[in-house]
Request: fold
Amino acid sequence: TNIVPAADGTPVQGDLLEAAASPLAMSLQDFVAEFGDELLDSLNRANPPVYTSQARPHRQLVLASLKRKLFGAQAEVVHAVTELLADRGERAAIVNGEMGCGKTTVGIA
Reply:
């Protein structure tokens, strides 16, 4: 089938443009290499992280008093989720991880 462009020559939805068709075309890898730092800065300004690995001392004491000690990564998740739920007032948090990584232990902590 032949695809007929719009009367003004602009591509119609669904048309594929070859990379050589536009002098402004660049690969995603090149785009991220060129603009990645600025994109990350903009993203962090628009959506600041909830937890930045600065654990609160009183929460460290609570975790230290648990009968089952957490691994470092598990403790970081507990701090992040607690920051989200207790300090930011969110109603829920999702803890995602592979089988056997301690999600249940993190949830209990």
In short: The first helix runs from residue 28 to 46. Residues 57-108 form one domain. Helices lie at 28-46, 57-64, 72-87, 103-108. The mean pLDDT is 86.
